[in-house]
Specification:
One of its GO terms (biological process) is immune response-regulating signaling pathway. InterPro entries: Ig-like_dom_sf, Ig-like_fold, Ig-like_Receptors_ImmuneReg, Ig_sub. One of its GO terms (cellular component) is plasma membrane. Pfam families: Ig_2. Keywords: Disulfide bond, Immunoglobulin domain, Membrane, Signal, Transmembrane, Transmembrane helix. The protein is α+β, with helices and mostly antiparallel strands and about 210 residues long. It has a domain of about 90 residues: Immunoglobulins (Immunoglobulin-like). Helix content is about 35%, strand content about 25%. It contains three helices and eight strands; from the N terminus they run H-E-E-E-E-E-E-E-E-H-H. The strands form two sheets. Strands 2-8-7-4-5 form a five-stranded mixed β-sheet, with no helix packed on it. A three-stranded antiparallel β-sheet has the order 1-3-6, with no helix packed on it.
């Protein structure tokens, strides 16, 4: 009987603890990092918690760090928590919640925000710089390929024209050299050949006898 009473007491205390720290009726807030969630070591960042209600108390917590808790009362819809001189110990996942004035019940936690702290040589803009270098490399390679392609096409065109000219010269040389030539051995033009064909041939003397 004593064991059952202790079990019920522990269950009640656990339920009371959960109700005190979480209220599903309040909308979930949102958490953002300004200027960004990737910060250089020694820099500063502001974690801004924003909710739908005014005149509330905001709380900033850190996942897997029960002793980390910061509170801030705000007359507006949001509160900013400034973190300065960041080091590796500040990296992790943060969340926030809020509660109304005179209430001991916190809202549902916001989605976790992952904060990254990089060394001085690991600049936040390093990935974009790598992407830019890749774009420059691809563009330069494309331009070089196009520059080498034009001379190749031009040489192929010249070679084909040269082969065609040789074929035409060969076909002309195989024609009958007497075709279209006059008595003097000179080649007649098409108009001269047609005029010569229209003139009747002279009969030799004494043909009528």
């Amino acid at each position: 009987m004593i064991t059952g009473f202790l079990s019920l007491l522990c269950l009640g205390l656990c339920l009371g603890y959960d109700d005190e720290h979480k209220n599903d009726t309040l909308p979930r807030p949102s958490l953002h990092a300004l200027p960004g969630s990737v910060v250089r070591r020694g820099g500063n960042v502001t974690l801004k918690c924003q909710g739908p209600l005014q005149n509330v108390k905001f709380m900033l917590g850190k996942w897997q760090a029960p002793g980390y808790r910061r509170e801030w009362s705000s007359a507006g819809h949001d509160a900013g928590f400034l973190l300065t001189h960041l080091g590796p110990e500040h990296a992790g996942r943060y969340f926030c919640a809020y509660k109304t004035a005179g209430s001991h019940v916190w809202s549902e936690q916001s989605e976790h925000l992952r904060l990254e702290v990089t060394d001085n040589h690991d600049r936040p803009g390093a990935p974009s710089a790598k992407i830019d270098s890749r774009v420059i490399f691809v563009t330069a390679f494309s331009c070089l390929a196009i520059f080498l392609l034009f001379p190749t096409v031009f040489l192929i065109y010249r070679r084909s024209q040269s082969d065609l000219s040789q074929q035409e010269s060969s076909s002309l040389s195989t024609e009958d050299p007497q075709e279209g030539s006059g008595a003097d051995g000179k080649r007649k033009t098409p108009s001269e050949a047609a005029a010569a064909a229209s003139v009747p041939a002279e009969e030799p003397p004494g043909a009528c006898d």
